[in-house]
Write a structure and sequence with these properties.
Number of helices: 8
Helix content: 40-55%
Largest sheet: 6 strands, parallel
Shape: globular
Number of domains: 1
CATH topology: TIM Barrel
Radius of gyration: 19 Å
Number of strands: 10
Distance between the termini: 36 Å
């Protein structure tokens, strides 16, 4: 092996080592439904979800809240090793009936972004279930008042969706609502500013990747968790792809 080839091999080893080396950035998983659901792409079965939670537990991940994450940026909270945030959008009843017991079995907790206008309707959480989830260490966030894309409405409507949902949630569960998730992951600079002015500390977007103190608080990145086609390998690949995005600054 000549010295040029040797240098090339060493360079490739260094690059791969850098890519695979752990970061301090935090993954945020994005789920919707958990249960025996037909062909809905944004749902995973109970057995798939349990397999994923078991994987996280066995591989040293510790579930934290978004509040924990933000408090760590100011030194108020010290995060555990391998922190991860587990989120659910829309507020389906199976988040309480199916997902919560599985998470508790593996020492995990979550943040659930609910839509006040859907609470109590078919397949969605009731107000009592939202309260029960909060009492069992679930962080509650807003997903707008009526689940409308923030890019599909004007500024006044954006403000109303963000503000009214916050007020409704706080009135019914009795605690401050600090975090927001954009329906369909849609957002704009104007929507970000409105969410900030409405009093939220941060907002989850549809952008892929991991999060650290430098990440835009109103464009938090998440790892989408749809119905897997390739089982646990796909789950692991999605985690690793987000790690690569973070490493490469994407």
């Amino acid at each position: 092996m000549n010295k040029f080839l040797a240098c090339g091999v060493l360079f490739m080893i260094a690059i791969l080592g850098w890519l695979f080396w752990p970061t301090n950035a935090v993954p945020i998983l994005a789920y919707h439904q958990v249960g025996e659901v037909d062909e809905e792409i944004y749902s995973v079965t109970a057995s798939q979800f349990e397999e994923q939670m078991k994987y996280l537990k066995e591989n040293g991940y510790h579930a934290i809240s978004l509040e924990d994450l933000f408090n760590s940026y100011t030194g108020k909270t010290v995060l555990p090793e391998k922190p991860i945030v587990i989120t659910f959008d829309d507020g389906y009843a199976d988040n309480y009936l199916t997902a919560l017991p599985i998470m508790e079995q593996y020492g995990m907790s979550a943040t659930v972004f609910v839509v006040p206008s859907l609470i109590g309707t078919t397949d969605y959480l009731s107000w009592q279930q939202v309260v029960y989830m909060q009492e069992r260490h679930t962080e509650i966030g807003s997903h707008t008042m009526s689940h409308v894309g923030m890019n599909e409405i004007n500024a006044a409507e954006q403000r109303r969706e963000a503000a009214e949902s916050k007020v409704a949630l706080e009135r019914n569960i009795g605690t401050p609502i600090q975090f927001f998730a954009y329906p369909y992951g849609q957002f704009s600079p104007g929507a970000q500013q409105i969410v900030k002015e409405t009093g939220y500390r941060g907002a989850c977007s549809g952008l892929a990747g991991l999060n650290d103190a430098k990440t835009d608080s109103y464009a938090l990145k998440r790892i989408n968790m749809p119905q897997p086609k390739y089982g646990l390998w796909e789950f692991r690949l999605r985690l690793f792809r987000a790690h690569l995005y973070s490493k490469l600054g994407l």
